[in-house]
């Protein structure tokens, strides 16, 4: 059964994925990270493999744009141009080099980086800020072409660059929007036949916008110290999960 002509998606699954978009958008704003990763995991359980990454990317682009619109006043605007330049280069450089890297080593590298920057924030402030964000734009997009949800990699660097949780969350949403645009271009997703998934995409983007709005309300009501503690706990759990996956895939146990 196909609801609104969406391949492999019935009414119950349509509602479930729409709610998942709402919930993960709320989580993404309230915790400062993790929303995209959680949504990708949920969608992977139900979406056709060929449609998973393009649909997820478009939904996350919609979530990033709506978050940026809601929280634009808090975005670190001076980081945008160098980040976009780096992202364009990263998208262009993409697959030929990175595809040869073993997935287990990729998870290991990402996990170690996340833990180091989360618990040693001074590492996230190395070098001039504009140059650092240009490099982050390159790296996040380069990696994102293959692992999709790279907001968790970017988040600790942004968090280390500002003492204000609102600035960190708003800037992450804005910069990840450019990452998703670059990925769409690099993957050729613009030519992907998403027509049949438009109703689902539209519903998930709308639900994500509501999640962003409610997430900002919860964020503003949360003390800075508590937010950063939650952020560290979530990033640590995700980093350890990556290390566990890397060790398992490499056959280390």
Distance between the termini: 42 Å
Q: What letter string, H or E per element, gives the SSE order?
A: HHHHHHHHHH
Rough shape?
globular
Q: What is the number of helical segments per DSSP (H or I, 4+ residues)?
A: 10
Mean pLDDT: 83
Number of strands: 0
Report the C-alpha radius of gyration, rounded.
17 Å
State the secondary-structure class.
Answer: mainly alpha
What fraction, in percent, of the residue positions are helical?
Answer: over 70%
Percent range for β-strand residues:
under 5%
> What does the main sheet amount to?
none
List the domain count as a whole number.
Answer: 1
Low-confidence spans: pLDDT under 50, at least 5 residues? none
Describe this structure in words.
It is a single chain. The protein has helices at 11-31, 35-44, 49-71, 80-98, 103-119, 129-147, 151-161, 165-187, 198-220, 224-249. The longest helix has 26 residues, at 224-249. The protein contains ten helices and no strands. The chain has one domain (3-249). With 253 residues, the chain is an all-alpha fold.
Outline:
With 253 residues, the protein is an all-alpha fold. It has 10 helices and no strands.
């Amino acid at each position: 059964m196909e609801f609104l002509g969406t391949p492999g998606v019935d009414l119950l699954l349509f509602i479930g994925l729409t709610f998942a978009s709402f919930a993960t958008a709320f989580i993404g704003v309230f915790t400062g990270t993790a929303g995209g990763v959680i949504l990708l995991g949920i969608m992977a359980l139900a979406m056709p493999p060929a449609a998973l990454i393009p649909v997820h990317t478009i939904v996350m682009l919609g979530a990033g744009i709506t978050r940026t619109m809601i929280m634009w006043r808090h975005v670190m605007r001076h980081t945008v141009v160098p980040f976009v330049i780096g992202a364009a280069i990263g998208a262009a450089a993409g697959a030929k080099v990175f595809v040869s890297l073993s997935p287990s080593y990729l998870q290991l590298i990402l996990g170690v980086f996340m833990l180091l920057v989360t618990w040693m924030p001074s590492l996230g402030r190395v070098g001039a800020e504009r140059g650092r964000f240009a490099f982050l734009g390159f790296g996040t997009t380069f990696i994102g072409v293959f692992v999709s949800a790279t907001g968790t990699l970017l988040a600790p660097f942004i968090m280390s660059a500002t003492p204000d949780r609102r600035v960190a969350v708003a800037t992450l949403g804005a910069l990840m929007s450019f990452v998703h645009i670059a990925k769409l271009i690099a993957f050729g997703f613009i030519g992907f036949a998403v027509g049949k998934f438009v109703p689902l995409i539209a519903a998930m983007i709308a639900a994500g916008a509501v999640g962003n709005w409610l997430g900002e309300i919860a964020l503003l009501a949360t003390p800075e110290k508590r937010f950063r503690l939650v952020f560290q706990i979530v990033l640590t759990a995700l980093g350890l999960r990556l290390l566990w996956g890397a060790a398992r895939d490499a056959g280390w146990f």
